[in-house]
């Protein structure tokens, strides 16, 4: 069967992609030549971020104009079928059929009934498996994060080298997660996918940026500081909710925010690593951590909207997000020539290669444990496990990387995590109380 020919609109689309890619590649090349640091020095994080953004624009800018052209000309509704139409439809419009929603509902219903059929013993063992998987995956992942970004590797000849490119580590994590998601989709039955693929690009970008901020921040602040700052994101979230939408909060939420603030002040006062660092270095680290919290908040909210609108499974979401993550990071890495230098570093320092492989396995398996735990036990159990994981990660980092903490810092850590557990407990009790009132009202 002969393939349909390209029509004139296809050539316009290909021209938009080609011209946009070439122009932005030249812009990236020019920016690299102007911003190149002296030999032996690393690029300042803000300039590195700028180069990354130019790389991502190579995908986003042509993509934006292609979508605009397709919608303006009704490309998918007019004229005979062409070679590009199925691909354009997949990215811009997605599938449209009510059968998909019926399939998704039936599949979710079947999984729920299977979960309800478990005995208490089986459910307890499953919960222990999920907790062990999350703690093991993300504790190892956090340890390797700090090790890769803060320590010198030694090759067989005794030469020392430090790896500095955060974006390459993001790519390594995402490529394995994408492959794993595809494998699960092929093995396990899924409802038919209907979301336009381009909608994954938004949360994929924010997911890349939050991961990049995590790695980059470790150049400026210690891992315990990073973990505790992430645990404190409830404060900016509450402030934003109050300012933007005049949202009202429960009394216990204000208590939690106050306790976390006190805990963070106590930790920073007693953190010797923070005292040794310069003010400029610490300021850079906290700016990057604020970026992490903002991008991470957007990612979860956008993914929630996609789940609600298109009823895809967690593995389809994982595949879609990581598809664009691989595309964006690989293009940016190739434009900057970092692929070659990173692979050369990997070939010279075999221990770095092993750490990257384990880091990627932990990241990918951790994502699977997240989706499975939430689907079986709900978000409350997941939040409790991950809060315990944060405590474990801080203790592990302080022991393995010898972060000196004064007693006041240890008290600060205790206050922060006590506040988080208080938040979990109070929100759960409030939710149960509302359910009881609602059930009584129906009788």
How many E strands? 2
- The Rg value, from CA coordinates, equals 24 Å
Strands of the widest sheet, in order across it, are 1-2
Strand content: under 5%
Q: Outline, from the CA principal axes?
A: globular
Structural category:
mainly alpha
Ranges where pLDDT stays below 50 over 5 or more residues in a row are: 98-102
> What portion of residues is helical?
over 70%
- What does the oligomeric state look like here? single chain
Biggest sheet descriptor: 2 strands, antiparallel
Tell me the number of helical segments per DSSP (H or I, 4 or more residues long): 16
Alpha-carbon distance between the two ends: 64 Å
Average pLDDT, rounded to a whole number, is 81
SSE string, helix = H, strand = E?
A: HHHHHEEHHHHHHHHHHH
Descriptive notes:
The protein is built from 16 helices and two strands. The model is unreliable at 98-102 (pLDDT under 50). Strand 1 and strand 2 form a beta hairpin. It is mainly α and 443 residues long. The N and C termini lie far apart (64 Å). The protein is globular, with a radius of gyration of 24 Å. It is 80% helix and 1% strand. Helix 2 packs across helix 13 (314-336).
Task: Please supply descriptive tags for the structure shown above.
443 residues; mainly alpha; two-stranded antiparallel sheet; 16 helices
Quickly describe the structure.
Helix content is 80%, strand content 1%.
């Amino acid at each position: 069967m002969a393939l349909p020919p390209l029509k004139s609109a296809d050539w316009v689309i290909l021209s938009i992609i080609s011209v946009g890619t070439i122009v932005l590649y030249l812009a990236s090349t020019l920016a690299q030549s102007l911003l190149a640091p002296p030999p032996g020095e690393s690029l300042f994080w803000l300039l590195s971020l700028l180069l990354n953004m130019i790389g991502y624009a190579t995908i986003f800018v042509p993509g934006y104009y292609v979508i605009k052209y397709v919608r303006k000309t009704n490309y998918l509704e007019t004229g005979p079928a062409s070679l590009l139409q199925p691909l354009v439809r997949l990215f811009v419009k997605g599938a449209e059929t009510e059968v998909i929603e019926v399939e998704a509902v039936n599949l979710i219903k079947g999984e729920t009934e299977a979960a309800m059929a478990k005995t208490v013993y089986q459910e307890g063992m499953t919960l222990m498996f999920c907790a062990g998987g999350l703690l093991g995956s993300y504790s190892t992942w956090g340890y390797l994060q700090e090790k890769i970004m803060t320590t010198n590797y030694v090759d067989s000849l005794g030469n020392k080298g430090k790896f500095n490119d955060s974006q390459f580590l993001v790519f390594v994590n995402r490529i394995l997660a994408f492959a794993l998601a595809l494998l699960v989709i092929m093995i396990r039955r899924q409802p038919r996918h209907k979301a336009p693929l381009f909608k994954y690009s938004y949360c994929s970008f924010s997911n890349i940026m939050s991961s990049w901020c995590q790695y980059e921040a470790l150049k400026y602040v210690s891992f315990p500081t990073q973990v505790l700052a992430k645990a404190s994101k409830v404060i900016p979230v509450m402030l934003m909710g109050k300012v933007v939408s005049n949202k009202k909060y429960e009394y216990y939420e204000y208590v939690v925010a106050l306790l976390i603030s006190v805990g963070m002040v106590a930790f920073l006062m007693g953190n010797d690593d923070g005292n040794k660092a310069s003010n400029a270095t610490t300021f850079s680290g906290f700016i990057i951590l604020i970026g992490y919290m903002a991008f991470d908040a957007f990612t979860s909210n956008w993914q929630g909207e996609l789940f609600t609108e298109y009823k895809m499974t967690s593995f389809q979401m994982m595949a879609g997000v990581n598809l664009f993550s691989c595309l964006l990071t690989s293009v940016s890495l190739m434009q900057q020539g970092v692929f070659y230098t990173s692979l050369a570093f990997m070939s010279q320092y075999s221990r770095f290669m092993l750490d990257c492989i384990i880091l990627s396995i932990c990241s990918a398996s951790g994502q699977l444990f997240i989706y499975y735990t939430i689907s079986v036990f709900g978000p409350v159990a997941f939040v409790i496990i991950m809060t315990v994981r944060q405590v474990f990660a801080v203790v592990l980092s302080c022991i393995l990387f010898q972060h000196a903490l004064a007693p006041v810092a240890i008290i600060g850590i205790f206050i922060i995590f006590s506040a988080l557990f208080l938040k979990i407990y109070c929100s759960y009790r409030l939710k149960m109380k509302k359910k009881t009132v609602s059930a009584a009202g129906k009788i």
